[in-house]
Amino acid sequence: MSGELLQLHLFASIWMTAIIWYVQLVHYPSFNAIDSESFCEFHAQHSRRTTLLVLVPMLVELLSATSLVWISASGASLALGALTLLTWTLTFLISVPLHNRLAGGKDQEAIRRLIQSNWPRTLTWTLKLFLVYALQSGRAGIAP
């Protein structure tokens, strides 16, 4: 069972890591190119469409990481759980409030802070992907 959970977590982690790198390097910087009159509509569409892409994979990550910690409270599974929790914490304590601020209109400072504060999420998701890949392939010294 834990092997299937690990594969499910790996798939969700690959998905989220690819998305977060795209968002960090391409999408968030493009916020600067949207004119002020169109920004609210643009941001509303961005929020709806991004939610469609990330809601299920993020829930899969959270539930599978929680299950893996529950099944095997090893150091590696605890690290995986902690990194998953950290991505959620950064998302909901930093990114979501900045997006809520941007929903009211173009705000250069909020865009700058969003881009800057997204680096820890990008790096955390990337680190977590490497860990879950190592776990899944047996490279972390732990059988799936």
Concise structural overview:
The chain has helices at residues 2-30, 36-71, 75-102, 108-137. With 144 residues, the protein is mostly helical.
Question: What portion of residues belong to β-strands?
Answer: under 5%
Cα-to-Cα separation, first versus last residue: 9 Å
Q: What multimeric state do the chains show?
A: single chain
Query: Pairing-aware structural class of the strands and helices?
Result: mainly alpha
- Tally the structural domains: 1
Radius of gyration, whole Å = 17 Å
CATH architecture: Up-down Bundle
Percent helix: over 70%
Mean pLDDT: 92
Low-confidence stretches: none
Tally of contiguous helical segments = 4
Tally the beta strands.
0
Q: Give the overall silhouette.
A: elongated
Largest sheet: none
List keywords for this structure.
mainly alpha; Four Helix Bundle (Hemerythrin (Met), subunit A); 4 helices; 0% strand; elongated; 144 residues; single chain
Please give a structural write-up.
The protein has one domain (2-137): Four Helix Bundle (Hemerythrin (Met), subunit A). It has helices at residues 2-30, 36-71, 75-102, 108-137. The model has no long low-confidence stretch (mean pLDDT 92). It is an all-alpha fold. Helix 1 packs antiparallel against helix 4 and helix 2 runs antiparallel to helix 3 (75-102). The chain has four helices and no strands.
